[in-house]
Amino acid sequence: MLSADARTVVKFFHPTVSRERVEREVAQTRKAKDYGIRVPDIYDVIQHGDRFGVVMEYIQGPTMTDILSKAPYRIHAYARQLARIQAEINAVDASGFTEQSSLMRTAILQTKARLGEEGSAHIVRLFDQLPQASRLCHNDLHQENLIFTRTGPVVLDWAEATVGHPIADVVHTLLIQKHPVQAPVLQNSSLYHRLHNAYRRYFARIFLNEYLRLSGLDREAIDPWLLPVAATRLFTKIEPEEKDWTEHYIRGKLLTNYSYKR
Length: 262
What we know:
This protein has about 260 residues and is an alpha+beta fold. About 50% of the residues lie in helices and about 15% in strands. It is globular.
């Protein structure tokens, strides 16, 4: 991010990101706003050298990460708030976004190099049995993508948004939380690393319980989506270390999935 003035900021993308992808994020952000979701206003797409950038409204306030790093005891309140925000997004019956079903199926098929042809084909079969829907899904909702202003939270980064089944969106959020990350302080302390990631997993548990309460869904509805969504995440632009963790997670799930015959 580069601040242009007191009211705007420029989000520059990596040189490998095409103008088409940038324009898609712009269009999906504006579409989310049309559906009543609080997002930054988008003003322009620019190019600086080999990088594209989006000129957008500067949103002043802390992220959820900032808040919890200073007040970790507020975990219950903010995990539940994330669930409420996700439920509000998923309540929107949407159109005009990338179609989730075809995107996920294509992504799962691309995992053959990591999971082998049998593993990939098995996950495709599981995915093909899942229900479809036309709800708005963010697919990258986490604490860093929520800024808290004086008038309420604003949701950032709509590049991965789709229209599809909300449970897939919830599972994306859960997997982001379950993935171990480096602790922000005392990075050489293995104990602090374990405590930090136990905190993240506890946050995920509170979040899921609240989301299930708000949506009326049963916990059993979540499990069938874990493998397909995890496989989809291998195809997204996550860090290599997270891809390795996700592959390990998938292989563990495959070993306990009785319908998977190797």
